[in-house]
Design brief:
Blueprint (H helix, E strand, L loop, with lengths): L2 E8 L12 E8 L4 E5 L6 H8 L7 E6 L9 H8 L2 E4 L11 H6 L8 H9 L4 H10 L15 H14 L4 E5 L7 H18 L2 E5 L3 H7 L2 E6 L2 E7 L5 H7 L4 H5 L21
Parallel strand pairs: 3-7, 3-8, 5-6, 6-7
Antiparallel strand pairs: 1-2, 1-4, 8-9
Helix pairs in contact: 5-6
Bound molecules: adenosine-5'-diphosphate (ADP) and magnesium ion.
The site of adenosine-5'-diphosphate has 13 residues, from helix 1.
């Protein structure tokens, strides 16, 4: 799905009056089937940009086109249909506690199913082999029937990503997909995600905390700082100097080691469920 942003600006819904906009007027075009990484220090506007692309947040100004149409000019029903054709993986995946991994992953299919088939699939996941296959791609084949609130944060994050493989979406938007993963798992997960997107011709936009992963796995990297585009370049042209400028005063984020994946335990915090 192609994406076109023209002079787009955005404000966080909870921002106080007078606060600077989360995104200043920016232009960005992403072609159908392209894979793009968005990097930049905390507060740069990466999540806001993803929420705009997911049609979850209306722009404050400018023109947004998703798949050639202006989502906020569509009738409500058409807007819902468009949202069903894209996949947003929030940083904390919306996994209801007590749900089994197989059901959570199968939920990726819901937009493609009718109401009754959806309800039935929540009680009796119909395509268990497909759910297994998706989980296995993220190293979780053995967790098929595990309850998600018994998984570690990193495992839950990977369940959230495995959903993409079953989603009937032409656009994947993933927010910091590796934030809870150790370096080996992170490399595997981003390799799977980018590889699958490329094979399927699915557009992928991922915000990433790990700059090295962005440069290694994506052909195109966009740097965002203070709500503005700092650069939009082929990965091989992103020099150390550019990165140092992008992360000035946030050097620890550029140098920061990724977290070690927490061990699975029954005491793992319950997954928080977000509705949008
Ligand atoms: N919960 C919030 N309440 C008010 N303003 C917010 C909130 N979250 C984000 N913002 C504003 O939006 C800006 C961009 O935030 P965000 O898109 O989350 O950045 P990033 O994902 O790059 O860390 C922040 O600098 C802040 O000004
Ligand atoms: Mg963010």
């Amino acid at each position: 799905m192609r994406l076109d942003l023209t002079q787009i600006s955005a404000r966080h819904p909870a921002a106080r009056t007078g606060a600077p906009p989360a995104l200043r007027p920016l232009d960005l075009a992403i072609a159908e089937g392209e894979q793009v990484a968005i990097i930049g220090p905390s507060g740069a506007g990466k999540t806001t940009l993803l929420h705009l692309l997911a049609c979850a947040l209306p722009p404050a100004a400018g023109t947004l086109r998703v798949g050639g149409v202006e989502p906020w000019h569509l009738p409500r029903r058409e807007l819902q249909k468009l949202r069903g054709r894209l996949f947003l993986a929030p940083q904390t995946p919306p996994l209801p506690p007590r749900q089994r991994a197989v059901t959570a992953v199968s939920a990726g299919r819901l937009p493609a199913l009718g109401l009754w088939a959806s309800l039935r699939s929540l009680a009796y996941p119909s395509d268990i082999p497909a759910a297994y296959e998706a989980l296995d791609r993220f190293g979780l084949g053995d967790k098929l029937f595990e309850r998600v609130d018994r998984l570690s944060g990193g495992e839950r994050q990977r369940v959230g990503l495995a959903r993409a493989l079953l989603a009937p979406a032409r656009l994947w938007l993933v927010d910091e997909p590796l934030s809870a993963l150790d370096p080996t798992r992170a490399r595997q997960a981003i390799g799977t995600l980018v590889g699958e997107a490329r094979t399927r011709g699915t557009t992928l936009v991922a915000t990433l905390h790990q700059v090295d992963m962005a440069l290694a796995h994506f052909a195109r990297v966009v740097g965002l700082r203070d709500g503005a585009l700092a650069f939009d370049l082929p990965a091989r042209e992103v020099t150390r100097e550019r990165l140092e400028r992008l992360y000035a005063q946030h050097e620890h984020e550029l140098a920061g080691a990724p977290p070690a994946e927490e061990p699975a335990s029954a005491a793992a915090a319950p997954a928080v469920m977000h509705c949008r």
